[in-house]
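ok, trying the design again with the full structure, not the truncated one.
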């Protein structure tokens, strides 16, 4: 069995979990607080970042996009019509572009700040950077949500799925990001009908159900977080 070191409110971790679930890959989940910098975890990934997958032979595969490429190369072709990475090179390029958008741009402009200020700091010591949320960082992240949601709304209004006619890694990356903000009640869904319809379809997928069960100690989710129909 594979093992995934993750955190429930880490975008990359959620992305990896969704892919593993989509491909029906049995995996043991080990929750890791990356800010603790455990020496055992650093031995697996000296960068100290999540997620990390212990693959065959307990070889560590570190990083969300690296894990997704590894899973596609070792399992994707066997899934045929359920494969989350297109066969065509140009379609693959579009999927990769959108994965980068959500795991890098969206993460750096929105999700990372929201998760750190509203979630992670609750469980950090002062020496680890815990304490009161930085209101300036939260305001900046909230200001950036609007443009990102408008882009998602446009994509979902013009395509069946984010990168084309079938679900792909792009949808998994976007849903991983959005789900953290949705947990925190940060998205005004009434303003983004097409995005809301797409996210409803994502939430209804069996692969998404374990994520809807995630809870943060001391911080309950928004009232509609686990509701498949909002």
């Amino acid at each position: 069995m594979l093992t995934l070191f993750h955190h429930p409110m880490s975008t990359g971790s959620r992305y990896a979990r969704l892919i593993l679930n989509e491909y029906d890959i049995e995996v043991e989940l080990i929750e890791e607080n990356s800010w603790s910098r455990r020496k055992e975890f650093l031995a697996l990934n000296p960068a100290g970042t999540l997620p990390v997958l212990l693959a065959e032979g307990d070889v560590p595969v570190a990083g969300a996009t690296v894990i997704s490429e590894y899973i596609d190369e070792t399992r994707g072709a066997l899934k045929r019509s359920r494969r989350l990475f297109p066969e065509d090179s140009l379609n693959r390029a579009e999927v990769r572009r959108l994965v980068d958008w959500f795991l890098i741009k969206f993460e750096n402009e929105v999700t990372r700040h929201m998760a750190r200020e509203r979630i992670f700091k609750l469980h950090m010591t002062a020496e680890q950077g815990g304490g009161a949320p930085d209101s300036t960082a939260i305001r900046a992240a909230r200001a950036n949500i609007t443009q990102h949601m408008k882009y998602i709304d446009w994509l979902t209004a013009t395509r069946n799925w984010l990168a084309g006619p079938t679900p792909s890694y792009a949808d998994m990356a976007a849903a991983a990001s959005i789900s953290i903000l949705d947990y925190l009640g940060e998205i005004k869904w009434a303003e983004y009908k097409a995005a809301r319809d797409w996210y409803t379809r994502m939430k209804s997928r069996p692969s998404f159900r374990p994520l809807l069960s995630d809870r943060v100690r001391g911080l309950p989710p928004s009232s509609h977080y686990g509701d498949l129909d909002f």
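Keeping the full-length input from now on. Strands lie at 2-6, 27-31, 52-54, 60-62.
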